[in-house]
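Lab notebook, design round three. We kept the backbone fixed and only want residue identities now. Task for the bench partner: fill in a sequence for the structure below.
Input structure tokens:
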């Protein structure tokens, strides 16, 4: 123990001696607040005086070591998404000035600047703020029951608070956004790019914002492959693929959920009553109309998802593009010469993977497996989007003084957690099948095909689900029926989200 303490003290003293020998702008700042990053140009120019910057930089990119101190910067997620996603826009030069040095990054945002900024912004709102927004929306609807007798006010308040909180919830996760954390010109940009391996090694999660252009960009493919390569070497990080249309789709689902819960009001105004046959018929008609509105959109996105995965299986370095080569290595605005990123990445690929063909094989065999087989929304995001179904039930519970209508609140929770997500999931599965069929037969998707599929899926999902629910409620008591239905629908949802690898293992066990 004494020898260990002496060794630790000597090491600490040597570190202090080395730090004191560094220039002032390179010494570690001892402060309780997040330190602002030092001037990267000054740091890199200091290294340039040694005459070995080129070799040092290439070694840093290939070994995952930082080129200069303070290259590991991050920004709060709510800052990056502030001002309506100003930093996510390619045309803006606003970097915000909110980045600070960190020891570890929570999320590394890997995205294509050719994707729509609004789709990335809404998807990130769903990813970070979806769960708290759903809880706040339910709470607002519940509180409205103590102050107003108008159910419409509670529904509107809960629906509005759901989207407002999703847009402005101050999530404190430290994220890496290249525009905010790396200088966009000068030697600081080169230092940040060459330290990419170190930045990836210091990131807990890589969040891939997938769109149609993601796997066509050289930097995006290299970031995914490098992160997975580091994870194979012992880096305990995880990769999350988020299609950028999830945000728009969740808004559509929440609007449909809000409209469905107000259907009985419309039926009352029309004098149609609220019998089971009338409600079922109107629900089917409304659901088919909603499916037609964005069914083609979902099918096109699912088709693009499958096409990208097929292209990734035939990946080659010549098939991806980079910004510098697209503009002829001349910046379109400033007219300055741009260093070729492709040459830099190719050299790093050779150092990391041995050769370019081995890298291409790694992308085909490893990166491609990380891309999900289906683009259907995960259960958590479906539950968030379906949360307006619960608003009217919790309002009635609180408006009744918490004494009656308790069963209605429990049933609303059952609808929001099981029934509604199951219906939407079945619908998305149908659209994915349409996309897969048109991709296999190389045919085009027409509105008639979408209508037929929407009608079949809606009848099978809504009709079968409501019929089973009514039968179970007729045979059992209320709470027993809810428990049985929750078990059945929860099992179906779990089976839908099981990956194919799990299904293969289960089938293999049954065969044995």
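Proposed sequence:
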């Amino acid at each position: 123990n004494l020898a260990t303490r002496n060794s630790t003290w000597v090491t600490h003293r040597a570190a202090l001696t080395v730090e004191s020998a560094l220039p002032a702008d390179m010494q570690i700042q001892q402060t309780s607040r997040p330190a602002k990053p030092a001037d990267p140009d000054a740091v890199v120019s200091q290294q340039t005086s040694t005459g070995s910057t080129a070799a040092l930089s290439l070694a840093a990119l290939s070994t995952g070591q930082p080129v200069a101190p303070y290259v590991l910067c991050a920004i709060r997620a709510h800052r990056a998404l502030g001002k309506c996603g100003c930093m996510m826009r390619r045309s803006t030069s606003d970097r915000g000035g909110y980045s600070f040095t960190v020891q570890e990054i929570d999320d590394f945002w890997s995205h294509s600047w050719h994707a729509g900024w609004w789709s990335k912004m809404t998807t990130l709102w769903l990813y970070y703020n979806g769960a708290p927004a759903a809880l706040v929306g339910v709470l607002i609807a519940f509180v409205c029951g103590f102050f107003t007798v108008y159910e419409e006010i509670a529904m509107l308040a809960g629906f509005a608070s759901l989207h407002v909180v999703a847009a402005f919830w101050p999530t404190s996760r430290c994220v890496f956004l290249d525009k905010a954390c790396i200088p966009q010109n000068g030697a600081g940009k080169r230092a940040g790019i060459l330290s990419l391996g170190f930045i990836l090694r210091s990131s807990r999660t890589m969040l891939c914002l997938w769109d149609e252009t993601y796997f066509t960009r050289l930097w995006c493919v290299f970031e995914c492959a490098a992160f997975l390569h580091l994870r194979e070497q012992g880096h305990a990080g995880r990769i999350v693929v988020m299609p950028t249309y999830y945000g728009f789709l969740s808004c559509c689902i929440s609007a449909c959920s809000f409209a469905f819960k107000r259907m009985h009001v419309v039926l009352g105004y029309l004098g149609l009553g609220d019998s089971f046959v009338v409600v079922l018929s109107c629900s089917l008609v409304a659901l088919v109309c909603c499916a037609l509105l964005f069914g083609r959109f979902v099918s096109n996105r699912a088709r693009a998802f499958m096409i990208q995965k097929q292209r990734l299986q035939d990946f080659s370095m010549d098939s991806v593009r980079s910004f510098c080569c697209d503009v002829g290595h001349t910046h379109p605005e400033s007219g300055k010469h741009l260093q070729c990123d492709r040459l830099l990445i190719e050299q790093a690929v050779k150092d990391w993977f041995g050769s370019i063909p081995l890298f291409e094989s790694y992308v085909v065999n490893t990166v491609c497996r990380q891309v999900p087989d289906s683009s259907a929304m995960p259960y958590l995001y479906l539950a968030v989007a379906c949360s307006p179904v619960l608003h009217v039930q919790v309002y009635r519970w609180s408006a009744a003084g918490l004494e009656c209508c308790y069963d209605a609140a429990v049933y609303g929770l059952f609808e929001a957690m099981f029934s509604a997500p199951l219906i939407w999931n079945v619908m998305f599965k149908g659209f994915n099948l349409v996309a897969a069929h048109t991709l296999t037969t190389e045919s085009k998707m027409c509105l008639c095909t979408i209508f037929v599929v929407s009608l079949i899926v809606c009848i099978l999902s809504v009709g079968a689900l409501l019929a089973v629910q009514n039968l179970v409620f007729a045979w059992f008591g209320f709470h027993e029926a809810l428990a049985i239905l929750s078990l059945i629908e929860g099992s179906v949802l779990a089976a839908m989200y099981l990956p194919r690898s799990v299904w293969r293992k289960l089938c293999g066990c049954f065969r044995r």
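Keep this in mind before ordering anything: The mean pLDDT is 74.
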